[in-house]
Amino acid sequence: MFDQILTAIDDFVWGIPTIVLILATGILLTIRLRGVQFTKLGRGFKSMFRKNGGKGEVTPFQALCTALSATIGTGNIVGVATAIAGGGPGALFWMWLAALVGTATKYAECMLSVKYREHAPDGHVLGGPFYTIEKGMKEKTGWNWKWLAILFAIFGVCVGLFGIGTFTQINGITSAVSNAFDPDSKHIAFSLFGNDYTWSVVIAGIIVTLGVALVIIGGLKRISKVAEKVVPAMAVIYVFLGLSVLIMNATSIPAAFAVIFKNAFGWQAAVGGAMGWTFKQVTDSMQKGVARGIFSNEAGLGSAPIAAAAAQTEEPVEQGIVSMLGTFIDTIIICTMTGLSIVIAFYTGVDANPEHGLKGIALTAAAFNKVLGGDGRSVQFLLMLCLVFFAFTTILGWDYYSERCLEYLSKGNMTVVKVFRWVYIVAVFIGPYFTISQVWTIADITNGLMAIPNCISLIVLSGVAAKETKEYFKKTPTLQ
User: Which of 37, 231, 269, 383 is 20 to 30 A from 178 in CA distance terms?
Assistant: First the structure.
């Protein structure tokens, strides 16, 4: 019954209107910003390590890593697998489309967040879509939009506490550890609501909870320092693993792309005359692809701007360019490797098996094992290692995002924020004991609710973003 209620809410929140809103926001910004995600991508990589001495708490690179720590997580390894299992290979196409236009969205939301940020009396930075909505939209329209900013902040706390930040990440970690060390679930610690939980799940949950507690009590600077070291290292390992799969099966890549495009638009079914099923296939593929794409790269969600606002910079446009790299790295590079590996393993060739019945990390691991061969243990261990560290840093990043949202709601009451940290730690502790379907559905719902007010503000302020961008590049056509 609970699952049915969650599914109904998820279908409503992630219906066609929300998908259209998110994609339309990205398309509008792509047009008004003259394809900034294509023309300035190289400049973003050049600007990544620059220090321009501006006010802030972390360097631009640390701000990017903090944002990436919250995006490169289970969405890349588990989320892609879940999207393909639920929406077919075509979901990957919709993830790409959402990412291509979403990169412009990420640029605009991060740039505006730096533009409208504030500084607290103790020097720490207050910034994010809530200030963009409250200050920017009031300047633009003359109306008071604080109620919309409050809604965003409420949804932001919910996403961190019940969605991306805790349940999905710790669930992904413990599932990966259990899959690696006790795949047959022989060592049962206890049963709860008809589900058995192994000792590997219990021990992994306790260790991760303790690690999270030790880091987040130290605040943003400790989180950013951990992210700065862990995220690049794990990304390199996962990219190496993904490239190995694709290089060894280079001849299968064209066939994989063909399957993805056919499934995305229902061409195979259309040829057979099954138009009703085709429409359902396309909408399911679109819904899962866009939802998981947003879950993975968070473009349009409004989370990355909270980290971007803390960057030591006085140039909103430059930070926007650096921040938009997150969507490119997350989806176009890392998610693509995962998705292509799964499609090659299970949807192409003479031994294709679309009815594999696998979910989450088990599907990704099975795909890598099938493609790479061998006993599979080493691949499984590397995947587990990547997922554990990716998800761990995501937990840290989303604690910071939720804290900033709560700080805005409580008007700077840090006692409330400190109490929230312990509530967050408790949420991490109980996360492993929810089912995968419940966890991902809750995450989808809170994601969609958070994206709506943010996208509304970006549409209203698209002209401001375009004007700021044009003036800045006119003034500084090349890096100084």
Answer: 231
Residues 6+ apart with CB under 8 A from 461: 108, 112, 132, 136, 137, 140
Among 110, 18, 24, 14, which residue's Cα sits nearest to residue 327? Answer: 110
Whole-Å CA distances, 97 to 90, 128, 257, 296, 449: 11, 25, 14, 13, 21
> Looking at per-residue confidence, does 356 or 432 come out higher?
432
- Measured CA to CA, the distance from residue 348 to residue 311 in angstroms comes to 45
Q: Which helix (H) or strand (E) holds 401?
A: helix 377-409
**Chain segment 37-83, per-residue pLDDT in tens:** 999 888 888 777 766 656 666 676 767 776 666 666 666 777 787 77
Handedness of CA 380, 382, 383, 384 (dihedral sign): positive
User: Which of 178-182, 300-304, 362-366 ranks highest by mean pLDDT?
Assistant: 300-304
**Coil, strand or helix: which one is 28?**
helix
Which residues lie closer than 8 Å to 441 by C-beta, 6 or more apart?
A: 3, 6, 7, 9, 10
The span from the first CA to the last CA of the chain, in angstroms, equals 60
Can you tell me the distance from the alpha carbon of 433 to that of 161, in angstroms, rounded to the nearest whole number? 15
Separation between Cα atoms, residue 315 and residue 476, nearest integer Å? 11
Query: pLDDT per residue over 259-311, tens digit each?
Result: 898 888 765 433 434 434 344 555 667 766 776 677 667 788 888 898 888 88
Position 241 scores a pLDDT of 81
Strand partners, 197: 190
Query: Both tokens of residue 282?
Result: 């396309």
Arithmetic mean of pLDDT, 124-143: 91
Q: What angle do CA 209, 214, 216 make, to 5 degrees?
A: 90
Helix 316-327, helix 462-475: angle, nearest 10: 110
Q: How far apart are CA 9 and CA 21, in angstroms?
A: 18
Q: How far is CA 65 from CA 72, 88, 89, 297, 325, in A?
A: 10, 31, 29, 13, 10
Report the number of secondary-structure helices (H) and strands (E) in the chain: 25, 4
Classify strands 188-192 and 195-198 as parallel, antiparallel or unpaired: antiparallel
Tokens, residue 65: 């890593």
CB 128 within 8 A of CB 404: yes
For the chain, the residue count is 480
DSSP string, 423-478: HHHHHHHHGGGS-HHHHHHHHHHHHHHHHHHHHHHHHHTHHHHHHHHHHHHHH-SS
pLDDT band at 317 (very low <50, low <70, confident <90, very high): very high
pTM of the model: 0.84
